[in-house]
Design goal:
Blueprint (H helix, E strand, L loop, with lengths): L2 H31 L2 H28 L3
Helix pairs in contact: 1-2
Amino acid sequence: MTFVEFEELSLTLGVASLILLMVFILFQLSKESGAGRYGTFVIFLALAMGIVGFAAKSVIKLFLPI
């Protein structure tokens, strides 16, 4: 495994673990604040947009020749 492959794998796993941590934190926040269904939906929608952006970056890198 080269250093570049290790960096890419580490970045992906690190960001994935941070996303899971953010999901847990946002779930606790919405539950403790009494945000309701709509508030919880909006909170997770914002997180989902960030996740989609990160995933789109990986997909775009696969299709663009460098």
